[in-house]
Amino acid sequence: MCRRKVFDVCFNNVAADTDYLECDTTNSQGCARCRVTQPLICCDIHHPSEFSAYDSNIQKPLTLSRSRTQKYTKGKHDFMLQDALDDWRDAKTITVYGWARLNDLGPALIMPNSILDRIIDCAHHHKINTIQDLRKETGWTDAELFGEEVIGIIQRCTAPLPLPLISTPLRPSTSSAINTSALSVSNTSSLDSISSPSSVAPKRRTIKCGACGKEGHNSRNRICLKHPSRNGGSEKENEDRISLPT
Questions:
Q1: Which string of b and e fits 125-159 if b means at least 16 CB within 10 Å?
Q2: Contact yes or no for 171/180 (Cβ under 8 A)
Q3: Using an 8 Å Cβ cutoff, are 143 and 151 in contact?
Q4: What is the pLDDT of residues 95-150, one digit of tens each?
Q5: Which of 11, 15, 31, 129 could form a disulfide bond with 23, CB atoms 3.0-4.6 angstroms apart?
Q6: Residue 237's pLDDT is what?
Q7: Rounded CA gap, 225 and 212, in Å?
Q8: Which ranges in the chain are annotated with CATH 1.10.150?
Q9: Calpha distance 244→116 (Å, rounded)
Q10: pLDDT above 90 as % of the chain
Q11: 3-state secondary structure 119-169
Q12: How buried is 109 (Cβ within 10 angstroms: 0-12 exposed, 13-18 middle, 19+ buried)?
């Protein structure tokens, strides 16, 4: 479809009134300025060779993916870096463009506010150490020109990296060695006492009867052969016979 058709339909050029004939009555074709003429070249669809001179051969630069920074609470070093970058922007804008530009347009001519905020976030997480890091993380067009100065400010104001924790094994002392040996001896004796069958199931003392001398009962138990209940009936019968009157 012709590209001109979009504009003709949008503005309804077909129904538009033309008065170029009334503008210049001396000319049969009307006014040369008001008359709508048909162009010799329509568009790049109908005449693509006519527009090849306007093609751009500039390749888009490759954009490196920047790091993702986690949310954080600004501390003393972050505010110090922000103040230092603000002062640097003001001074650099005056040096490059003059005080009038700083007064009218502000320091964003040198470094936009979004770039400054991004530098503070990346500096908090120690993501910017070189000019290449600065260009990658911020996309600042003047990173090559003013990168050294900004890197110096970052290194001067950011908090130092925390030192890694190093654990050194302690040498055992004499007292600890004695305690360890005593503990091992006590553990060994406790294990022996647990593993011995006597401690697990102690043997019960056997009961021995004092009357008949047999094991398994005492003299008060009725199963004993010499218990009084075994001879009590005959003795009672003899006593009854003696007590009867003649």
A1: eebbeebebbbbbbebebbeebbeebbebbeebbe
A2: no
A3: no
A4: 999 999 999 999 999 999 999 999 999 999 999 999 999 999 999 999 999 999 99
A5: 31
A6: 46
A7: 7
A8: 76-158
A9: 134
A10: 36
A11: HHHHHHCCCCCCHHHHHHHHCCCCHHHHHHHHHHHHHHHCCCCCCCCCCCC
A12: middle
Q: What is the mean pLDDT of residues 214-222?
A: 76
**Topology of 76-158 in CATH?**
DNA polymerase; domain 1 (1.10.150)
Tokens of 193: 């006492």
The residue assigned the tokens 């501390």 is 75
Q: For residue 48, give both structure tokens.
A: 């693509």
Q: What angle do CA 97, 146, 139 make, to 5 degrees?
A: 105
| Burial of residue 38, with CB atoms counted within 10 A of its CB: 0-12 exposed, 13-18 middle, 19 or more buried | exposed
pTM, full prediction: 0.47
**pLDDT for the residue numbered 188:** 56
Expressed in percent and rounded to 5, the helix, strand and coil fractions of the chain are 55, 0, 45
